[in-house]
Amino acid sequence: MKLTSATGIILSLIASSAIACAQPHERGDDNGQGRRGPPAFAELDLNSDGAVTLDEFKQKEVPHGDHESIFSEIDADGDGFISETELAEHKPPRRGGKKPE
Question: Where does the EF-hand domain start and stop, copy by copy (predicted)?
Fold first, then answer.
């Protein structure tokens, strides 16, 4: 069977897409959309007790700011722990310094 150049290109694109889709995406590094996202709660809750302490939070790299200020921003009730709900409901500030409403 003879392949035309267009057929070869299409097959190459299909193969490239299949390979890219087969690659695992780790949350927090690249969520599959070419941008970084927050880590999963389980990745932060190192001792699996259902709450993230500042010490646990400091084990992950933060892209902007310091651990303490980001932690206190996420800890909505100020109890010194981040719950899974607080992490899920936290809306990080947009680039450019404006916080979403």
Answer: 40-89
CATH of residue 83: 1.10.238.10
What is the domain count for the chain?
1
Q: Could you tell me how many residues make up the chain?
A: 101
98 by Cβ neighbours in 10 Å (0-12 / 13-18 / 19+) ranks as: exposed
pTM of the model: 0.58
Question: CB–CB of 86/76 below 8 Å?
Answer: yes
The DSSP result for 20-57, as a single string, is: HHHS---TTT--SSSS--PPPHHHH-TT-SS-B-HHHH
The 10 Å Cβ neighbour count of residue 52 is 26
Percent of the chain with pLDDT over 70: 63
Tokens linked to 8: 């070869």
Q: Choose among 39, 38, 37, 34: nearest CA to 20.
A: 34
